Amino acid sequence: MPVARTAAPRIALATYDSGPEAHADRDLPGLVGALREAGADAVAVSWDDPAVDWSGHDLVVIRSTWDYSWRAAEFAAWVEKCGKATRLANPDEVVRWNTDKRYLGDLTKAGVPVVPTAYLAPGDPVDLPTAHEYVVKPTSGAGARFAARYTPEQRDTAVRHVERMHAEGLTAMVQPFVTSIDTAGERALQFFGGRLLHASRKGAVLAPGTAYDADKVAHPDLVPWTPTEAELAVAERALAAVPVAVPGAPELLYARVDLVTGEDGQPCVMELELVEPNLFLWLHTDSQARVAEAILAAATAPH
Ligand SMILES: Nc1ncnc2c1ncn2[C@@H]1O[C@H](COP(=O)(O)OP(=O)(O)O)[C@@H](O)[C@H]1O
Ligand SMILES: [Mg+2]
User: Which SUPFAM superfamilies match (predicted)?
Assistant: First the structure.
């Protein structure tokens, strides 16, 4: 009698072609290995590789597509295509919502504490704070690309920064510089498969006087962190506010909530990363097996 065999779930981890000099995903080889050990047919592939048949995978997990913010239109087209071809995590509508930082406005409307943000679209007058230090950055950005901090005296440089973004069709965000970041840093709470995975604390990225187009260290001085109850509560409220509009879409497979301490001493959201968060598994080695397990469960869950 023939024995019924269940094929190994086919899982693609989407990364990018980092080239020899750029930032490679340190977590990827270990994660592919852990998935294979757990019985999956797992591969890491570049999201822009034209030879990949995405429909040939049971699940595509966006992992380290770290060039997407400056290839936004191409990436959006890929996300849509891939979401139609197979199961994509996170789901395409979540990725679409999260690739534009105006989502912070949706969080604010939902009552989640967020770093106060003004938006300057191309054509808008360049209205900048005059009473305190502030940050200018793009609504479509990652890795602190095109971000810089300014004092009111540096207005001319800040205006040139905003104008450069507008010339490239980018909308600028203006936020008060969160002064606590220089001492308390930023806390990254990582969720996977609907549960807290681990948390890390990182130092401030924007040093005074650093040019907006300089290359920055995106996660300096990273150390493991035990989240406070207040941090967990804010992170969970942020996740609860994510609009998942498509009926039947799988819940969020992964999320990173980056928090800072606001003027009132309470945690507030700097960024909610639902596209391609660095997982920092090299720092949290115990988390690798849990991540592999959650990915495998997502690949084999009934549609
Ligand atoms: N309002 C702010 N106050 C202080 N530091 C900021 C502020 N906005 C951004 N930064 C610094 O710049 C980094 C990158 O900004 P972020 O909003 O996280 O964008 P992304 O990580 O997507 O590039 C943050 O991790 C933080 O160190
Ligand atoms: Mg960030």
Answer: Glutathione synthetase ATP-binding domain-like (SSF56059)
